[in-house]
Design brief:
This protein is of the alpha+beta class. It is built from five helices and twelve strands. It has two domains: 199 residues, Bira Bifunctional Protein, Domain 2 (BirA Bifunctional Protein, domain 2); 43 residues, SH3 type barrels (Roll). Bound molecules: biotin.
Length: 255
C-alpha cells in the first residue's frame, strides 16, 4: 500500500492534522525530523519513508531499513513534560505501537523492555525516542519518536538472523502511521494524570516473569524480571536476592 498524505490526513480532523512529509528514500526519518525542528518546525509532524539509507537504532546501532518491505516514520510532538519523565515517552510509544499492530494484524505483539515489539519471540519493530530539551525550563522542547516496522521483510543481514522477523502480511500503512500518531498523542496529553498505559505495558511485557541477562557497571548479571515501575524502570531480583531497578541499557531474555 503506497503512502499518501491525503490518505493519512483522512484519519484526522482538519484542526488536529499534523504536518506530514513522505519520502521514497531518506537517510533517516528521525534525522529529517530533527533537521526540520532546527529549521523552526513548531507544529506536530510525521516524517515517513519507504526506505532509509542510514536508519538508526538505540545504543548507536543501525536499523535495517530496506525499501518497500518496511515502514519507517518519525513522529514529532511538543509535550510539556519534565526531563525526568522523558522515558515515559518511550513506554507510551511502545504501548501505542503494540495496540495498532495488534488491531491491524490480529496477531499477539508483546513489548520487550524498553520498547521493542516482538511477535512469536522475534523482533518486528524497533522504536527510538529522542528528546530535544529545554534545560532552562527543565522540560522537553520537542520529542522525536522514530518507529520502524518490518512488514514483509524476509531476508535480514546475518547479525539479525534468528532475532528479527516481520509481520508477514501487508497492512494499511497510512492507517498504521495515523493511528499510532493519534494513540501516542492521546497518551502523551494525559501522561501525568492517566497511568493506565503503564498497566497495559505490564500486561504485554515479554520480560516480566522471565530470567533476563544484562550488563551493569561492566559486570554480567542474571536476574528475574518481576515488574515495571510507574517510571518505566524494570525491577529485577538477582539470584542473590538483590532488587535492582534498571532504567536504561539492554537486556536479553531467556525465552
Ligand atoms: C531500535 O530497534 O533500536 C530502534 C529502531 C528505530 C528505527 C526507526 S525507523 C524510523 C526512525 N528513523 C531512524 O533512523 N530510526 C527510527
Amino acid at each position: 500500500m503506497k503512502l499518501s498524505i491525503a490518505d493519512i490526513k483522512a484519519y484526522f480532523n482538519e484542526e488536529e492534522s499534523p504536518f506530514i512529509e513522505i519520502f521514497d528514500s531518506i537517510d533517516s526519518t528521525s534525522n529529517e525530523a530533527k533537521r526540520a525542528i532546527e529549521r523552526g518546525l513548531a507544529s506536530e509532524a510525521i516524517f515517513v519513508s519507504h526506505h532509509q539509507t542510514a536508519g538508526r537504532g538505540r545504543h548507536g546501532k543501525s536499523f535495517y531499513s530496506p525499501g518497500e518491505s518496511g515502514l519507517y516514520f518519525s513522529i514529532v510532538l511538543h509535550p510539556e513534560i519534565s526531563l525526568e519523565k522523558s522515558v515515559m515517552l518511550t513506554v507510551a510509544a511502545a504501548v501505542a505501537t503494540r495496540e495498532v499492530i495488534e488491531a491491524q494484524t490480529k496477531k499477539h505483539p508483546m513489548i520487550k523492555w524498553v520498547n521493542d515489539i516482538f511477535i512469536d519471540n522475534k523482533k518486528v519493530c524497533g522504536i527510538l525516542a529522542e528528546a530535544i530539551n529545554d534545560y532552562e525550563k527543565g522540560i522537553i522542547k520537542s520529542a522525536v519518536i522514530g518507529i520502524g516496522i518490518n512488514i514483509t521483510t524476509k531476508d535480514f543481514p546475518d547479525e539479525l538472523d534468528g532475532i528479527a522477523s516481520s509481520l508477514g502480511e501487508e497492512i494499511n500503512r497510512n492507517e498504521t502511521v495515523a493511528l499510532i500518531f493519534k494513540r501516542l498523542k492521546e497518551i502523551c496529553d494525559q501522561l501525568e494524570n492517566n497511568k493506565d498505559f503503564i498497566d497495559e505495558y505490564r500486561k504485554y511485557s515479554l520480560a516480566i516473569g522471565k530470567t533476563v541477562s544484562f550488563k551493569r557497571n561492566g559486570v554480567d548479571h542474571k536476574a528475574k524480571a518481576v515488574d515495571v515501575s510507574d517510571n518505566g524502570e524494570l525491577l529485577v531480583i538477582t539470584e542473590g536476592g538483590e532488587e535492582i531497578l534498571l532504567n536504561s541499557g539492554e537486556i536479553s531474555i531467556k525465552l
